[in-house]
Amino acid sequence: MKTFLRSALLACVLLLMLPGLALADGPEDGKLIFGGTYILAQGETLNGDLVVIGGSVTVEEGAQVNGNVALVGGSVTIDGTVNGDAVAVGGTLSLGPKSVVTRDVGTFGAMLNRAEGSQVAGQVTSGGGFQMPFTLSVPQTAPQTGTWPFGGQNWNAPFNWRFDASPIASGANLFMRSLGLAALAVLVVIFWPTQSLRVAQASLHHAPISGALGLLTFIVVPGLLILLAITLCLIPIAALGAMLFLAAIVFGWIAIGAEVGQRMAEVFKWKMHPAASAALGTFVLTLVLGVIGIIPCIGWVGSAIVGAIGLGAVVVTRFGMRQYDEAPAAPAAPVSA
After folding, report:
1. Is the same domain home to 196 and 309?
2. Is 106 found in the same domain as 173?
3. Is residue 152 part of a domain?
4. Residues 6+ apart with CB under 8 A from 156
5. What is the domain count for the chain?
6. For residue 296, is it within any domain?
7. Which residue from 33, 105, 130, 269 puts its CA 20 to 30 A from 41's CA?
8. What's the rounded Cα separation, in Å, for the pair 204 and 206?
9. Which residues fall within 8 angstroms of residue 145, CB to CB, at 6 or more apart?
10. Comparing C-alpha atoms, which of 49, 47, 84, 45 is closest to residue 63?
11. CA dihedral (305, 306, 310, 313) positive or negative
């Protein structure tokens, strides 16, 4: 099944590959363009993924990219052939009249300019706003011009709750999303066990503070990123900020899922590796809140609360780099004789 989620997961995977791409030297390893200009000239071939962060890239007619193209801010103009997916998170993605994309094209808060004659073998999907990775997107019959911050109904048609997708397709979409986050939870707990534990403890023992700070971050940070993106010279900083913001949301969500998995293992008396319990808890948490998210009007509340608490816990612990403790109470004054 080719859905909007596939392109979203591709963008996340490509962003996780940035350190490796930054060290690449040869044409077989792909290309990372960070705030610069790059032209793949006619007749040239790039074997690997092309990742653009706040830069300007042109794939000329007759040029070929044997991999995926990912854009985070900036602009990409494709007049040649891309043997893979093309994904844009912010910025502008342009497909010329001679362009060929052999798989899917997906945009997230980005502008897509598609000329007549351009060929896309897969799906062309777009998202008007920022979508949380843990929400359930419900297809609608009404033309969609925007969605609520935590998923749900189109704000231009608040009382239209009809579905144009079968329950099987929606269920498969949710299942694959839960499975993808569970797999990512395994990597997070293996490589950052102490940091994820600190975030989980902060979200558990200081939930009100974490939730309030997370909600404030949800409100303030997107506006700041938009202001930075308006200034062209600060687009790379806005792109990095968006990546960091997304990483904080996912990290907080996985930390809470790891705590849920640990509690499940204790209740059922299962002996599990922390990475396995984190995968189980993240899968169950995402699946359950995704099902609850189908409920009209109030279904998004559960995901919003968990997302805010997780994000706030990441902020107060600085991505788990320090243990968060409330300030100790002042000592009582000594009693005179």
Report:
1. yes
2. no
3. no
4. 142, 145, 146
5. 2
6. yes
7. 105
8. 6
9. 128, 154, 156
10. 45
11. positive
Q: Is residue 263 part of a domain?
A: yes
* Residue 23, domain member (yes or no): yes
**What is the dihedral sign for C-alpha 290, 183, 125, 15?**
positive
Written as tens digits, the pLDDT of the chain (337 aa) is 344 444 444 444 444 444 333 333 344 457 878 667 899 999 999 998 888 877 789 999 999 999 888 887 778 999 999 999 888 877 789 999 999 999 988 886 678 899 999 999 988 887 543 333 333 333 333 443 444 443 444 444 443 444 344 566 667 777 888 888 888 888 888 888 899 999 999 988 888 888 899 899 988 888 888 888 787 677 788 888 888 889 999 999 999 999 999 899 888 888 888 888 888 999 999 989 988 888 877 878 888 899 999 999 999 998 888 888 754 444 545 555 4
Give the CA distances from residue 117 to residues 59, 96, 101, 114, 178, in Å, rounded to whole numbers and listed in that order.
16, 8, 12, 9, 37
* 183 & 279 share domain: yes
Spell out the residues 6+ positions from residue 47 whose beta carbon is closer than 8 angstroms to its own: 27, 28, 30, 66, 67
Do 121 and 236 belong to one domain?
no
Q: Measured between alpha carbons, how far is 135 from 332 in angstroms, rounded to an integer?
A: 48
Phi-psi region of 5 (alpha: psi -120 to 50; beta: other; left: phi over 0): alpha
Amino acid, res. 180: G
The range of the structural domain enclosing residue 304 comes to 167-316
Radius of gyration of the chain (CA): 22
The reply to whether 16 and 115 lie within a common domain is yes
Q: Are residues 15 and 83 in the same domain?
A: yes
The DSSP secondary-structure symbol of 12 reads: H
